[in-house]
Amino acid sequence: MSVDDPDTDAARRLLNGLTTAVVHLDARLHVRYLNPAAEMLLHASARQTRGRALGHALPALAGERKGLLGALASGNGYTVREQRMQRARDDSITVDCTVTPIAEPGGDTGLLLELVQRDRQLQISREEKLFAQHQASRELVRGLAHEIKNPLGGLRGAAQLLEAELENAELKEYTGVIMHEADRLRALVDRMLGPSQPPEQRPTNVHEVLEHVTRLVRGELPAAIGIERDYDPSIPDVRVDRDQLVQAVLNLVRNAVQALGGAGTIRLRTRTRRLFTIGRRCHRLVVRVDIIDDGPGITPDVQEQMFYPLVTTRAEGSGLGLSIAQYLVRLNGGIIECDSRPGATVFSVYLPLEAN
């Protein structure tokens, strides 16, 4: 039965709710239907591609033409694993593609294509591993914090008592150094632990957050670094802890500033995405906030570890900024992902637009 048949409204609603991309082609390999997941995956519009030839409507699938014609001729379906598809010049995806011949009204045979993005599934697996390792790191830090804070408190108290007994001002400078360093280490441990209170989530305008962060960093920016904006004004408010989101985005923007090394451009971009999975939960709609810099990029080995505490490539860095940003976004039901190559590093913050 054709998915374009008016009697198949229930089937259409079912297909529209799938996270698997579904494409329906007629006997001439013209597009009859794309479900929303296919629109997202192939960067195409169901309305604009309807009735058009496959090669013009969906260039990413043009390489499958020979196999599709063979399926029509034989009536046998097939599956291609880990097929590389080029959506744009610098944008390719890896998918599993299953092709199934289906009967059309009038006796013709059409094709139903099911596309499952493999790289996204691998990304989800990496995210789950990251969450587990991040949680283990935090449990270790909590245990160490108790062991560190107690002697630090005793050390600082002893330095205060010693300072009170000293009459020599030069010697008091040394006790001051002891107290200052004890305070610094305590603050470092507190930063590693992150907030102790659960997030206070309220409807928040992400663009107001981005503008606030922009104002905060303006005074720190070298003259040769510019900030550009590319906002989608239709994005509704998202339920998050505003202060936590400000801190997370601020950490990401400062990280971009440091990566540029004194000259370059930072672009702040907002978009929405449909049917996006965070962890194991698929959200109907998420907001995506991109912090993009045109710096030298991040090497793959560093990308694998950069969200762990104390991982940094800069001698003066603490290695906490990205770890804290990921933790704060995760507290609000979201995730931060990174894609980097020389000249284009993108940190993407994904936050559900439905209630958490």
List the topology elements.
Blueprint: H1 9-16, E1 21-25, E2 31-34, H2 36-42, H3 46-49, H4 54-57, H5 65-74, E3 78-88, E4 91-103, E5 109-117, H6 118-165, H7 169-193, E6 202-204, H8 206-218, E7 225-230, E8 238-240, H9 242-260, E9 264-278, E10 281-293, H10 300-303, H11 321-331, E11 335-341, E12 344-352
Parallel strand pairs: 7-9
Antiparallel strand pairs: 1-2, 1-5, 3-4, 4-5, 6-8, 9-10, 10-12, 11-12
Helix pairs in contact: 6-7, 8-9, 9-11
- Poorly predicted runs: 1-7
Highest CATH level, the class of the largest domain = Alpha Beta
Strand residue content: 25-35%
Q: How many helices does DSSP assign?
A: 11
Strand adjacency order, main sheet: 2-1-5-4-3
Structural category is alpha+beta
Topology pattern, helix = H, strand = E:
HEEHHHHEEEHHEHEEHEEHHEE
What is the radius of gyration computed over CA atoms, rounded to a whole number of angstroms? 27 Å
Overall geometry comes to elongated
CATH superfamily of the largest domain: Histidine kinase-like ATPase, C-terminal domain
Main sheet record: 5 strands, antiparallel
Average pLDDT for all residues:
83
Record field, number of beta strands: 12
Helix content bin: 40-55%
Task: Please give the domain count.
Answer: 3
CATH fold-type name of the largest domain: Heat Shock Protein 90
